Structures are given as structure tokens and as C-alpha cells.
Please model this.
Amino acid sequence: MGVCGERMGRGIDPAERACTVAAAKRRARESRWNAPGRARVVHPVHGTVVVPHSSNLTAIQNAAEVWRCDWTEITDAQVWAAEPGDVPVKMPYIICALFPNQFSCASLCGKSTAGGHPLTAPSQGLIL
Model:
């Protein structure tokens, strides 16, 4: 069968666990950005953006990613149906710099880190 407690998450290598969690976050983000609907998110400070929409929460999460802020801080945004001709913004590209001190980024996301990523700080990713 396997290692004792394997199904409970015990006995799993920390690097493998981090890889699994990173892959789950990546899949959730991709499904959020591939939603079929479109919404216009209006915020008094950040402005207006048209994003993919499957629920108001996902629209706010996508807008927060475009605005480069934490979605939990957006409390006064309004989500409206987008006009038929509105084109949503593209999904921001995130350069991987996960766990720079503990695990290699190449093992987590497949990107080479020879000499480190030139555009990222040592402990954070950069959204372009």
C-alpha cells in the first residue's frame, strides 16, 4: 500500500507537498481566468476593469490580481455585467520564485533558476 499515514498527509516529502499545493493553486487560478462569463469590476480607487466571471467573488479576485492588491482588502468594489463588446484583460503573468531558500523553483514549476530569476526579489514573485 504505502507508507503508514500516507493518505493523511503524513510521510510525504515537504518538497512534494509544496509541489502539490503549488499545482493546485495554479489550476485554481487558471480555471478562474478561463471562466466563460465577463464582468466589469468598478472600484473607487483602482478604477474599472473587465475580467472573466463565474461568480462575483472570482471577478473580484481576478480584478485584484490585475490591480496587484490583496482581494480581501477590496470591500467597496461593485461587480456589474459587462457590455456585449467588452473584452476582458489578459491573465497577468507571474514569474515563479516559490520557496527560494527551501526548494528549487525548477522542481516546483519547471522553470530554470540558474543564477535566480533576474526580475524577482529573493523572497517574492513578480507579476508582469
User: Anything to note?
Assistant: The longest helix spans residues 14-33. The chain has three helices and five strands. The helical segments are 14-33, 56-67, 105-109. Strands lie at 37-43, 47-53, 78-81, 94-95, 126-127.
